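A common beginner's mistake is to predict each chain separately and then try to dock the pieces by hand. The better habit, illustrated here, is to supply every component at once so that their relative placement is modeled jointly.
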Amino acid sequence: MQSKNRTALIPYVVWIALFVIAPIALVLYYSMLDLSGNFTLANYQNFFSPVYLKMTFTSFWYAFLITFFTLLFAYPTAYLLTRTKHKQLWLMLIIIPSWINLLLKTYAFIGIFGLYGPINAFIEVFGFNPQQILFTDFSFIFVSVYIFIPFMIIPIFNSLDKLNPSLIFAARDLGASSWTTFRRIVFPLTIDGVKSGIQVTFIPALSLFMITRLIAGNQVITLGTAIEQQFLVSQNWGMGSTIAVFLIVFMVLTMLVTGQKKKGGRV
Amino acid sequence: MKQLVQASIAIIVVCLLLFFASQSLESAGSKGSKDTLTVYNWGEYIDPALIKAFEKETGIHVIYETFDSNEAMYTKVQQGGSSYDIAVPSEYMIETMIEDDMLVELDHSLLPNLKNIDPYFLDLPFDPGNTYSIPYFWGTVGIVYNPKMVPKDLTFKSWEDLWDERLKGKVFLVDGAREVIGMGLNSLGYSLNVKDDAALDKATDKLIKLTPNVKAIIGDEITPLMIHNEAAVALTWSGQAADMMWENEELDFAVPEEGSNLWFDNFVIPKTSKNIEGAHAFINFMLDAENNAQNADYVGYSTPNAAAWKLMDEEVINDERFYPDVELREHLEVYENLGLTWLGKYNEHFLKFKMNLN
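With all components supplied together, the output reads:
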């Protein structure tokens, strides 16, 4: 039995070596090369210049805002979903937009938010002048939140769904108000869902790049944009890899902070 | 476990089948390289009727593929997966491709129609003697604007007009480091190919003053957005401007007199070619005065073919905006291959400028 288990492990080990360890090792290796392929640490030094530090800060700030608003909308939605009659159907309806290609959805928003788009047409009905919506912080965060919401709802919905309703009845029986019940019972028991929701939102949001150009018109520059530019335009793989190394570090930190702590036994 | 194995086997079988199917499809496409020709060009950059005419005239079957950036084209040709017979890179990329020994030397005796090209466009610094490349289309970088949406006294004869306070939040810039930094350099009277840190710093500082006016820095999306009057002014290539003006007649185009970029897209034959003779025939066919005029009419860019000019609409040829006279062309500069170090610096400055937008 033992040896059989070992053979079954081989594909996973090969997979992880090829697609997890090797790429990270390559990124680390390239990050220490300069333009002519010599070994250097100058890329790391360069990362600590004001331009990249500011970019790191903006990336974090926007990723935080996106995660915050996504959570703000996703939690109540997931909560209400568990209370509805045909919850699987409603969940499906929320997930369906994520089947549509990201680029298509983004392009659609260019039309919707445009000066002559439906939103401005609606504003004009009430006698206001058309507003600049596209290429603002608002449009950037709105579209990103829209894109990430399904990924946040699913884990929260699952943990809410698994919640034993008798716990809530017990709390109410013992005289807890609905707010106290939520604060002391429901939220603590679904915190793992919230944490995985934050992981799947915050980590990709850190390195968003396409939406920064299409929706924010490069008014928002994230580390993802810089990586794209280093690889495709400057052909400076070293610097691009260095930024990627820092992104990996930031992501690991995020995982550690939001990671599920095993507190003996399972909830 | 059994189910898992079955499922894995099923997936592997399907993958293998798809792999062989695509292999056989591809080899069917490029079989008998003598009678097929693979042309690798920018999107919307040729009159499809001409490809049909070429196939009819020569009996060579043309496979037409498109790319959307010089860098993407370079990577694909370098990988050598497909046997491209013709590619259409821009001038700075030709320099790189010559350096990397990726191009076939052209046999001018197979290109009698080369005489049709205006001598101004031959023997340029990026390829002396046209050993490797033949000009296809050319153009400039300039400003497309909607006169109804900007103050009357702004005609964009000078780059300075972009810095006008009344244009707050009305300007689109194209997402290209060389175009934007180049505009900053030009407005200060520097060369577009300057290799001087002080000049780049000054140009970036000047550009940072432009940020209140910049609405967005975007790519090809500029075209539909300008057509729909989402912004009043945009920095873009003349060819793209021609596309916009075709759709939105209110728009106008100007090349500032302090100078700007002059670009060329050129036919080359990559070393991947398996039908060098056919490639020459194709280039020669496209250089024919009548075909070239038809193509220029369809594509809307400026052709370097002097014989074709005679066949084209005079209004088009005399349009100073797209066919600037020789005197104005003196102020225009062709991009030189900066080398990776300086290209990197241009991009760092561009990134710094972008960081100041918000």
